Amino acid sequence: MPWRRRIETKMAEVKILIEGYAREEGNSLFASSTTILIKDNNLNILVDPGANESRLLESLGKNNLKPKDIDIVFLTHYHLDHILNIRLFPGKEIYDGSTIYSGDKEIGYSGNIPNTNIKIIPTPGHADEHCSLLVETEKGKIVIASDVFWWKDNEEQKKDEENLIDHDDEYANNKEELIKSRKKLLKIADYIIPGHGKMFEVKK
Ligand SMILES: [Zn+2]
Ligand SMILES: [Zn+2]
């Protein structure tokens, strides 16, 4: 009898490495994004490496990873509190919601992160290029929403639909688009991971 190879269809895993924060102290703002590790199809995908270098290296270490073990660095949008740590990943491919950057070479793509089941969802409003990720896991549909939803450390995270949709975002560059993006994500997600703040369950 010929060998029949079993096809592994292991679901993706999502792990929050660092919970994003944003706090004012005197004239300064201390902010770094939520940083997430997705394991899918044997790839280590790091979403929004953030701006806190020591915490990122520490949390990778706790997961027995070094920067060289990351296969893909994915950026949801171009705010530096989400991006600054790309300098820890020299030579790695950087993905945004539409393009793969490999040095000076740019390759367009759409739909899924290639070779994964991770879906790209355009979510403009906070920033034009903003996109979110939908990951099907054993726990349910997890949406990495980044700054479609975010809170300062001293703000209460009110999780009823009205407050989630209307919550003020002082950095949004198009509030109408932002509201559309929020509604879109609330419809599809079982859980939402915000750009700064705690993961929450979406009550249906
Ligand atoms: Zn942010
Ligand atoms: Zn932002």
Write the layout of secondary structure elements.
Layout: E1 13-18, E2 21-25, E3 28-32, E4 35-40, E5 43-47, H1 53-62, E6 72-74, H2 80-83, E7 93-95, E8 99-102, E9 105-108, E10 119-122, E11 131-137, E12 140-150, H3 161-166, H4 175-188, E13 191-196, E14 200-201
This protein binds zinc ion (2 copies).
How would you explain this protein's 3D organization?
This protein is α+β, with helices and mostly antiparallel strands and 204 residues long. 17% of the residues lie in helices and 35% in strands. It is built from 4 helices and 14 strands. It has a 7-stranded mixed sheet with strand order 1-4-5-6-7-8-9. The protein has a 5-stranded mixed sheet with strand order 10-11-12-13-14, with helices on one face. It has a two-stranded antiparallel sheet with strand order 2-3. The N and C termini lie far apart (50 Å). The model has no long low-confidence stretch (mean pLDDT 95). It binds zinc ion (2 copies). One zinc ion binds next to helix 2, strand 12 and strand 13.
